[in-house]
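Predict the 3D structure for this chain.
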Amino acid sequence: MEKSIQMISGKSVAVFSLNTVIVGSGAAGLNAADTLYELGQTDIAIVTNGINRGTSRNTGSDKQTYYKLSLSGNCPDSVGAMAQDLFNGGCVDGDIALCEAALSAKSFLKLCSIGVDFPTNRFGEYVGYQTDHDTAGRATSVGPLTSRFMTLQLEQEVKKKNIPIFDGYQIIAVLQNQGQLRGLLAYSPKSWHPFALFNCKNVIYATGGPAGMYELSVFPESQMGATGVALEAGVKGRNLTEWQFGLASLAPRWNVSGTYMQVLPRFVSIDNQGNEYEFITDYYQDNGKALSMIFKKGYQWPFDVRKIDGSSLIDLLVYQETVLKGRKVYLDFTKNPLNQLPNFDQLEPEAAQYLASAGATFGTPVERLIHMNEPAYTLYLNKGVDLKTELLEVAVCAQHNNGGLDVDMWWQSNVKGFFPCGEVAGSHGVFRPGGSALNAGQVGSTRAAQYIAVHGQGSPDDWQVLPDDCQNVIEEKIKLASQILSNEDNTWQLITEARFRMTKAGGCVRSTKEMEKAITEIDALLRNFAGSVKANTAQAISLAYYLYDMLICQKGYLTAMLSFDRIGNSRGSALYSRINGTIPNRLPDTFGYCLDGDANTQVIQEIVYKNGEFTCSFRPVRPLPEGGGFFENVWKEYRKNKNIY
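Done. Predicted structure below.
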């Protein structure tokens, strides 16, 4: 890596020239760096907005799942079977599904080898359990913080290799010319030279999903995302409509799935006058049904329009209380629903048998929680919330983006040399098995590293011969800092307003009117961004760059949602409001819906940004390849180029 200090647009800019930049310090980014180094490409560096930030390091659930090929027992499984399950999620490219299945065991065993302590039985089998959309018991876990343990162990490997880490650098522009990557521009508010140009041949973009777009979000507050600047540079997006939403606590931000629901907590709504009431039982035919659906919400955790007549009605009820009525909703683990011990015999057989088998047909919800899963109780206690005495505020939150930036089977985008990996890559479809995102991040970053090691070698061109369009982008981004500098600061206010707008228009309930209104408001702010935004510190300027990224991103996502709204109906974790649709029991017309079914599962929506506007199109999914092959032929080709092409 070469470094110099240059004057660009009147600013002192640090210029770093190297082969590959890995953006992001989560599990996908760290694995990419470690794998590249192991493959002999050592002219690399990690660039991160914050080494201790991000989703991988700071999130989990009651039992965070890692999804991989079955490695225990006599339950039949195969790469082909796993690929088929991934492909069945709808709007999934078959070659990507096969890659994620083929490398799942290798990626999983690497994590085991570097110290991620996945449990084995006394025979050494990596035992598993069945997760959602899973047919073979492929799930495993190291507890509530699986992804954190992965990240910490991968970070150790990176540090052993002395791979440079640029900490505190925010990507504000992706530079490309005629479909070829040319580098990145970053802003570092605490640096002597706040602007940095990374002149490189390859970028592995592991920035996570656009987590900060929504007001109601389970992503850690430190996780921002940087999808907007990639879209702005012409990187294609795909399946941007497909988010996953679910119930989560707000302080701390955490999924309330699994045992948190299975112990049957009380749902309480409190209005502006402080009036408290339970509301879930009002919408089911009897209390036994209501409690059974609360129980099911534990493993049917994501909001799913196909389950609105069952457990997913709970999500809509919470959404109505919080977003539409402006109230606060809490889980109360200190008291039983309706202030009486549930009649467990009235529960549906599945719930009744589960709780009986667990010996949890007694006491209060928090007593049942400690009995069944004490680490789940301790997790909140360690975060400053004692469920024995405190109510837990919850909402229906954005939890995972199944869509994202478009990639091929090597996780390369339409911009050559630019490889989105992890959640920022749109490798999933409408549904996905629980825990498959962790596998996808490890597989995608490995595939990108393998491709670069074979086809992406060498030094970048001299930064001084960057094409004019790249130079113009650099100058415009640097100039913006001076344009918005002021004695005032409204960056956080504008970010807050933008997040609220996105939750209302592009959350789990979407109406044509709200989406069109939101796009109009976003356009107005983007047109006069420099005149509307005021920043009075270097940190505020950083927030302004983030706001710009977020607005571009929101416009792209809302455009995709509006485009799908015209040709499709409700699917996955999104209800598209239909006046003449099915209206759930005792709910307003806003929640009228029609199911999309399988009508659009074999096409992928793509979106591209050009001249300030997004354009959507649809293409067929790439089919699931047959896989396998005659060994002698595969081996012959492998000796030539390791079949990396």
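The CA atoms of residues 492 and 543 lie 7 Å apart.
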